[in-house]
Amino acid sequence: MSTALKVLARIMGFACVAIGLFHIVIGNASVPGGESAGPTIDSLGRFFAAIFAGYGLAWLWVARQNPVPAAAVRALAGIFLLGAAGRLLSLAAVGWPHPFQIVLLVIELALPPVYFWLATADEKRHAAAAADGTKGVAQPA
To answer: Considering the entire predicted model, what is its pTM?
Structure first.
């Protein structure tokens, strides 16, 4: 579980940093259907893109920890899920966005439960290993 959690956290981190930097550099043109949103939305988007890149750096930091801090994974996954809730609220309030945004919504709804499950499983494994004194290291038979 620990390896899967670290790999997924790294993928999430690199993806978020890359997406954030892409949005900072490209601006409104990076959003399907958002090219004509205007300077105010461009400014807002680039600002939030920097925060998203920082969110990705937080995932990369988590992936480097040993053991992976389950509470941090849950918090980061919860933030991702909150983003999905925002998309759902937008969908209800103003209608259907570009189809690509729906694909992102599906990802944002699907990944957090996976992270919650992996974090809990990894946390339990480390707790069990600590209880028997192995600290997660295989002991010779």
So the answer is: 0.88
Cα torsion 85, 86, 89, 95: sign: negative
Q: Is the CB of residue 19 less than 8 Å from the CB of residue 108?
A: no
CB atoms within 10 A of CB 87: 17
Predicted pLDDT at 133: 80
Question: In Å, how far from its chain's centre is CA 74?
Answer: 10
Residue 122 has, within 13 A of its CA and on its CB side, a CA count of: 23
Amino acid letter, residue 30: S
Query: Which of 63, 26, 59 minimizes the C-alpha distance to 45?
Result: 26
CA angle 12, 115, 82 (to 5 degrees): 80
Residue 38 and residue 45 in contact, taking contact as beta carbons nearer than 8 Å: no
Amino acid 141 reads A
